[in-house]
Amino acid sequence: MSRLRCFAIPSLSALLSGALAAPVAPPSFDQYPFTGPKFSGKPAAPVLRTAYQRTFRTAIRDSAARGPNFAGRYTIAEWGCGAGCVSIVIVDAANGAVHPGPFRNLGWDMRRYEDRIASDDPQFQPLEYRLESRLLVARGCPEETACASYFWEWSGSEFKLIRKIPSVPLQGARSRRPWLPMPSTSGDGRSPWQR
Q1: pLDDT (mean) for 2-20
Q2: Side-chain-facing half-sphere of 174: CA atoms under 13 Å
Q3: Among residues 45, 107, 109, 147, which one has the fewest Cβ atoms lying within 10 Å of its Cβ?
Q4: Which residues contact 174 (CB under 8 A, 6 or more apart)?
């Protein structure tokens, strides 16, 4: 009996440690399908309500005019905010409502994302999304902090963070970015760009 116990306990702990160390696959687009009717027709003009949105009106209007590219009826409008940086908003093609993205600026540094995607690879994509999915994948450093792969689910009016996978520096690479503090928020919890 004691010999069985001595064998069973180390075997059980080895099995558990192997199971706990096994990598979990990141969320995939097919796990978050868009199930409603897809938009068809001429997209509505974006309704620009904030100073931030009006500042980038040309990029937002141009993207919205091309039609939906995300979650069946929405357009993710992207524009550059410097070298290695992108900003987004989400435009509803049906009514022109403009929603903030989950970040104001997404920068990326010399890092490896999801332990397989290097930011210095010519095929690197900081943003991935699909017309037939509610999932937005962002690889980078929102507001210049917390570099990671972020997986957000779109609800139709806002994003919900599903998972965050920290990134690691590329071997031998030096950071190109001065790390800036997060912008302060007002008492209502909204960031300055959401006001």
Answers
A1: 47
A2: 2
A3: 45
A4: 110
Scan for tokens 């022109």, then name that residue: 96
Across-strand partners of 90? 76, 99
Quick one: how many helices (H) and strands (E) in the chain?
A: 3, 11
Take residue 170 and report the two structure tokens written for it: 């590329």
Which residue in 99, 102, 121, 123 sits closest to 110, CA to CA?
A: 121
Q: For the ranges 125-129, 143-147, 175-179, which has the lowest average pLDDT?
A: 175-179
Mapped onto helix, strand or coil, the DSSP state of residue 56 is coil
pTM of the model as a whole: 0.77
Residues 163-175 have pLDDT tens digits of 999 999 987 655 5
Which amino acid type is present at position 102? P
Both tokens assigned to 150: 């972020």
User: Which residue in 161, 148, 150 sits closest to 108, CA to CA?
Assistant: 148
At which residue do the structure tokens 């900003």 appear? 87
Given a cut of 60, whether residue 78 has pLDDT beyond it is yes
